[in-house]
């Protein structure tokens, strides 16, 4: 779905569907730059370049006047260093505790028949009805019941029940983590692999996750 | 000085940004006679076109045109230098450019998806669509693609078969004996990963012009009379006007695996399924199959799975298991072709032309090749090869 001014306006008016709301929030939080190339003609481009160069040339020959910083009257060096160290330590501990909180997490949608959208620093997850996920990004453990969509914000290697090797989940791709099969085996497929499932199941998952 | 140099640096950077880079287009043929749709290891999709598929090597990075997976998938229709796809409520027409597909026309088709298509001639396309919400209703669209107009659009009301089986699957829609025949069945969802199909195949006969329903035939010898044919082919008319279709009750389509995969015939002089013709493929190969392409002279190729090689639906597509058989439709013999195991559930992997069948195979050696089967001499050779950035060649089409 493309985020445009209409969708953002809808978002501010509170008229978005949960999926749209989620997508807008994800877009707002996303700090990667996606810009279209400038649509200007060659002539305009050349003129723009010449103008910038003309503006630049007028400054290039000016010699800079060296500035001398006035000597400080009071020497707070040691106090400053100590304060910085304390500040850094506090910040470090804060960050550490934040990260520690996020590496292992449990999400539960047991009480809801609708979808539950969760936005974490390193991934988004959309829980289907009665779904539950235990995720540890440190150890790579990923335990689930029910169906969910998982959208990594960086590359992860996760181990799933029933397989001995870790599966690489890629940033930028959407994954379906489906409820464990009768043999306990976890099923995880990327959105592009959805096409290989039977059409009836593809359709059912699209309806459940509101992605038609 | 420092600040000036810094300004200069910033300005040069700005200049560099203003004069934006153009993509490298060399090598990306947009006008080849054949097109291959690939799903790649980096999870991207590409279309590669080439004037020959008999030999040569092409690479995804140099020759592939990126197809955004948020917008398209391998069910894209390729015909006469154009591509067609139903997306976001509109049936759209595209041309292929070196930087992607360029939309040139669109038709509103709100909340629907394509179940099946049939080209009546080079300009006329029949679409059989169902609604996204219930997947139970059926519409027929007649579209002329050159001026891109809907000439007929009608809902066909098919009676329910059972209260449990609420989902419609269309297996084929074809003009036979001046009537429109629609093969279909019904599915039941058990949960998000399990479903099954009713034990009957249905064929509706409709007036070709008014699309009025005239009668419905039932056949219980198998179920699921073919699948979505924009993904894979399951039926054809032979030179004499006999219509053949295959049933697909295996786990990849009907998931009613106790029924056999079989080929059925509607004779050229009758609107009814021939009750005595029954080519039971499962009895011959001890497996289910999906996909059938006509070679001419009463021979067809089928793509058959290997039950002993995959576990369940989750590894069905990633397992090297698919075998290709040549089937004699009259003598009912099956001959396995000497080809490596292929992977990928349902693929439009066969193109028949000039006495040859071009078969795309993604094999266990991570080779992604077009294999050429000479129908007369039965020789098999390797043709065009793609590089290992490819994961699956999911379709091969003649583009013009």
Low-confidence stretches of chain A: none
Strand order of the largest sheet of chain B: 3-29-28-27-26
> Could you tell me how far the N terminus lies from the C terminus of chain A, measured between alpha carbons in angstroms?
11 Å
Oligomer: heterodimer
* Fraction of residues in helix of chain A: 25-40%
The CATH superfamily name of chain B is YVTN repeat-like/Quinoprotein amine dehydrogenase
Shape of chain A: extended
From the 3D coordinates, which CATH architecture of chain B would you assign?
Answer: 7 Propeller
Structural class of chain A: alpha+beta
The largest sheet of chain A is: 5 strands, antiparallel
What topology, given as strand order, has the largest sheet of chain A?
A: 2-3-6-9-10
Largest sheet of chain B: 5 strands, mixed
Secondary-structure-derived class of chain B: mainly beta
Mean pLDDT of chain A: 78
Q: Give the rounded overall mean pLDDT of chain B.
A: 94
Spatial extent as radius of gyration of chain B = 23 Å
The most extensive contact between chains is: A-B, 41 and 49 residues
Low-confidence stretches of chain B: 18-24
Distance between the termini of chain B: 63 Å
Task: From the structure above, extract its key features.
heterodimer; A: alpha+beta; five-stranded antiparallel sheet; 36% helix; extended; B: 400 residues; mainly beta; five-stranded mixed sheet; 3 helices; 47% strand
Compact description:
The complex is a heterodimer of chains A (212) and B (400). Chain A has 212 residues and is an alpha+beta fold.
Descriptive overview:
With 212 residues, chain A is an alpha+beta fold. Chain A has a domain at 103-208. Chain A has 5 helices and 10 strands; from the N terminus they run ααααββββββββββα. Chain A has helices spanning 5-12, 18-29, 42-60, 77-103, 199-208; strands at residues 104-108, 116-119, 123-127, 132-136, 141-145, 148-152, 156-158, 167-169, 175-178, 187-190. A 5-stranded antiparallel sheet of chain A has the order 2-3-6-9-10, covered by helices on one side. The termini of chain A are close together. Chain B is mostly beta strands. Chain B has one domain: Methylamine Dehydrogenase, Chain H (7 Propeller), CATH 2.130.10. Chain B is 6% helix and 47% strand. A 5-stranded mixed sheet of chain B has the order 3-29-28-27-26. In chain B, strands 13, 14, 15, 16 and 17 form a 5-stranded antiparallel sheet that branches. A 4-stranded antiparallel sheet of chain B has the order 4-2-1-30. In chain B, β28 (368-374) and β29 (380-386) form a beta hairpin. Chain B is globular, with a radius of gyration of 23 Å. Residues 18-24 of chain B have low confidence and may be disordered. At the A-B interface, α3, β10 and α5 of A face α1 and β14 of B.
